[in-house]
Amino acid sequence: MSERRLIPDTLMLEERAAHAINAMIGMADRDHNFIPFFAADLMHKPAFMTHGDWDYGSSHGRMIDGLILARHMSGEEFGKEVEERYRANLLSFFKEDGMSYRQINPTHDWEPNANLIDQRAVILSLTSWFMESGDLKVKEVADRHVAALKRIAIKERDVWYYPASEYKETGWPSRNAIQLRLAPDPAAFCGRLVMPLLKYHELTGNQDAFELCQFFTALIIERSGVFNQDGSFNDSLAYRSGHFHTRIGTLDAIARFGAWTGDAAMLAWVKKSYDWALTKCTTFGWTPGDLHEQAYEHETCSLVDLIATGITLAQSGYVEYWGTVERFLRNHLAESQLLDLDWVEETDDKSCDIHANKSFYKVAERTRGSFAGYSAPNDFVCDVIEGRGHMNDLQICCLGSGTRGLFMGWSHTITEKKGTISVNFLLNRGSKWLDVSSYLPHEGKVVLDIHTDISRLQIRIPEWAGFTKIKYVRERNGEVIEGKGSEASSWVNKHFLLLGSAVAGEKITVTFPLSLRKTLENAVGQTFETEWRGDDVVNITPKGKKKPLYSGRQVFEEAPMRTGDYRRLDKEFVW
């Protein structure tokens, strides 16, 4: 941070990341070896948290990854001792075969197994851990883990797969499943693994990781049947009723692999399914849980998958998705983070706690900064008469994913490629090249403070702003230069205003009219009227009843200001 100054009091993702750290640390069960609780019921009086079968590789992997990314964004050091316990726990879950195993729980009749969904979070966290630290011991664990994932895969001529959801030390539970090629939900167990495996290959050159990506991707596209020919999700029971988190997470993974390998056909395949998925979501980011039983239950995990996939597609030339993703970041991701807990009843009494199972202790305080486990379009709490009714209000997987969503938005607000600096999201953000100060949604105004000479600078302008009334003022070396968006040769890639070269110390102010509009949004047969101010939803009808969303957003004719500054790093993670 540099010297503090006046900045717009608008959405700052790095500050949201600091709030998420509070929850990631607070949900540790200090009475049970710092195993994090998985879920919370905030409607109960008093609220309580519960453990579950996801407590081990999945939850620990999500928390380690989330904490690494959140600390990188925010610089916050709070709770490092708890994070170290998470890391030690994660390493303790590995057996000699290189797989991460769920543990015996004292209150549930579970048997140890290496759940294949868990392995995705495990290699994700090891990858971020190695990226952060360069620790060769972590790399050794990750190499053994990747080798195990390759070793246990059933290998056909052109595809690999896992024949069950759970692997045991004695091997696969059923030889018959292998002989009959009964691959259960390939998206959940194989497709989503591609994302962290590819990043691990990028970092280390690990060839086992690349081979897994190659053969799992071929499985999904060529043989699995997870996605229909028109891009829609296969909604049969065997495919988890078209479960959105695992489907879109798979699209994220394959988009990354297509971009990495330069496979334009693969990217076009992803785009087709992504566009279909968007038709089932609201434009502000609410997603169904699936296409049947969980349709009404939005997971923050699914939204973050949409964000990540959209970013990869945008970087690959489908630039229209920058605006799509910004709407997701500003709206349902930001609204899904729990910052106001006045409506939650909590207690500091532990007398009703059940060891290793349930806790009522200071739940509101400990979960502040978490993300919605299941939410309605207009309410943090999903308590509808359809589907499964009221379920978990918080899930730790959504906390890890929500934090990763903040990071994806933050790290792609300003990007550099071959000497061109692009401002992709109109969000507050600092960098070694320039600072972005966003006055949205109050004013159609963005200020760029340049820190170093830039040979080519461009900024994305929202599609609703048009081009005829866009203006910019450049102040440098005592000179003031004015320009308009209607000038010839001002635009590149349809949505970017080309500002050309910029010099250190220059200030560029870009202004444009705000779009004030209403849209009707459909969410699994329910209609919501939304009021927009630019890319922000400022009201929604009908209003939520438990913990309403989009009903408390204040807007002013001039953006409120506050004292502060942005975080700037010489070297940043790239995910």
From TrEMBL:
Q: Name one GO biological process term.
A: carbohydrate metabolic process
InterPro entries documented for this protein: 6-hairpin_glycosidase_sf
Q: What is this protein called?
A: Uncharacterized protein
Species source reads Paenibacillus oryzisoli
